[in-house]
Amino acid sequence: MASSSSITTTITILFLFLLNTTAKKTYIIRVKHSDKPESFLTHHDWYTSQLQSQSSLLYTYTTSFHGFSAYLDSNEADSLLSSNSILDIFEDPLYTLHTTRTPEFLGLNSEFGVYTGQDLASSSNGVIIGVLDTGVWPESKSFDDTDMPEIPSKWKGECESGSDFDSKLCNKKLIGARSFSKGFQMASGGGFSSKRESVSPRDVDGHGTHTSTTAAGSAVRNASFLGYAAGTARGMATHARVATYKVCWSSGCFGSDILAAMDRAILDGVDVLSLSLGGGSAPYYRDTIAIGSFSAMERGVFVSCSAGNSGPTRASVANVAPWVMTVGAGTLDRDFPAFANLGNGKRLTGVSLYSGEGMGTKPLELVYNKGNSSSSNLCLPGSLDSGIVRGKIVVCDRGVNARVEKGAVVRDAGGLGMIMANTAASGEELVADSHLLPAIAVGKKTGDLLREYVKSDANPTAVLVFKGTVLDVKPSPVVAAFSSRGPNTVTPEILKPDVIGPGVNILAGWSDAIGPTGLEKDSRRTQFNIMSGTSMSCPHISGLAGLLKAAHPEWSPSAIKSALMTTAYVLDNTNAPLHDAADNSLSNPHAHGSGHVDPQKALSPGLVYDISTEEYIRFLCSLDYTVDHIVAIVKRPSVNCSKKFSDPGQLNYPSFSVLFGGNRVARYTREVTNVGAASSVYKVMVNGAPSVAISVKPSKLAFRSVGEKKRYTVTFVSKKGVSMTNKAEFGSITWSNPQNEVRSPVAFSWNRF
Fold first, then answer.
1. How many Å apart are CA 562 and CA 565, to the nearest integer?
2. Where is the secretion signal located (predicted)?
3. Which of 255, 357, 365, 629 might form a disulfide with 93, Cβ 3.0–4.6 angstroms?
4. What is the pLDDT of residues 372-407, one digit of tens each?
5. Catalytic status, residue 580
């Protein structure tokens, strides 16, 4: 007779087995679109008929993707694969938000004023920028529609209502607001994990309001964040329309919801899509953002995505599809200095957005790494001993938990102040935060001096001093340490990121549902907030793309992208090469792409590198994907790969990324279109790399008319004996005349990462 313990073990194993086989998940199912039987009126009806329960169907996709998403157990998912019409099934991917005095810094003055006889303010009234994020706080002054004309007739979207959102809150500025939560709700057990969340476009996080107002917020005078960064807050395209699509919730942004929102946004009639979110790298046929954005691009919609905040780690860049504008982050020429005056007479420089009462002039004792656990140096929740830190200033290492949470942990333990010190992971990058107690952030070198002082001095003390807002900071821009880096691990032959834009300490609109730190215990409320991340740089480029669309409505998304890339600059405001905040070394195209955007020059780039849908298909064919994989991306019944590129780098991209592999020679042909004056002549200038010889033929391009196209061929030859494991070199190719410089960065690598 079996013992009771063995019976219990058997029952437990059986229960776990049943749980494993019956647990439901959201799946995205790709279907052969043309296989729909005539007996079904719609694809929705056909998809529903293939499921055991009609309630399992979450979304039907028609534009961004061919297929549907459903909530299934593994057996149901496996049974669907038995149908020849089902091409692929994969689990719903989870994406995350990319967060952590802009117009003047970019040289924008009332949106360029008049451009070649064209009033861009009036022209941009017809541009619609769609933002996929955490929703919107419609009461924000940044959505004021005073003097705006009627909504463009092309707009097919709507303003949805919800338990906390009246559809009448939309206006001629904020013309659309929708929410997509089915994927999130299924992953959360069928409901909302936060009391503040509901099926509504309402932004209870703040991130979505910040990004949408950065892209196209109306001008708001006397704006500031608790007195910091005072002035006029305005988006990049202040006269453009905004449509928001809420796809991000408390646990993240689910691919099924993102696809549904992209599907809807394309049909609604947006001109630009802005996505400040992303995940890890994946083949394009498994990347829902890449798949959806291909459909957008094909319909003339410009798609801008954040590069990610995983820098300075190499090969960390996200959203790398070549039809997407991938945006890294740089600093502004504005800072928020704060100081720690130490007891040994030294003064440490840092930054802060603390706005409460000061600490006075009495020095307080400093403590570091003294608490209840080995993680007290990080100031994690529960790690500090209140008996030790009460009434003192606590030094906390940056990393692991949120910067503002560290301050809250110190405050809750009785500390009166905090100095957050960078480690090697963040280097010298300084990000200002609105802490709940007096606190400053310092870089690694300063942090090392501080940590040594606390350890070695018998009575270490400090006084924290806050100095407000300082402008004209030099050098700037500097590449943010957090900004994700290349090389591109999906297709190394495409250089990513594409550009950088302002992404550190950015002031924009905020939600009244949450405090500026995002912490539950933060009871403060503010109309504007200062945030950092590639989440912030992405909508800058989205707004600029909207302005270029208004100035050049005939331009394709690829032409707009080219204009922003080839006119980007690589010298800071001291006329020195761009630097990297991670270690203050010189930056390179794996960090800054083509450089920092320059919207004034992008208006008149001279030449553009245009790319057709057919060329993108030839690119996909060169990746050794199966035909089914390519069909998943391009949404056509079939594709012909007989004219595929011999190398993915043959794509007519505005930058170059040369992967030699086992070869010494690489040869690429590019085609440029004259969008400048007729009778223009350009000469080439090559900036080579130490280990590579570069030749360009022809060396001169003469255009007789506007719209004329010319080709040139570049030959890259690696010098003999060069063998570099995981090392990269960089150069550039520039076509110039007295009016324009059309610059393309070149990255060289000898081995795949």
1. 5
2. 1-23
3. 255
4. 777 899 999 999 999 999 999 999 999 889 899 999
5. no
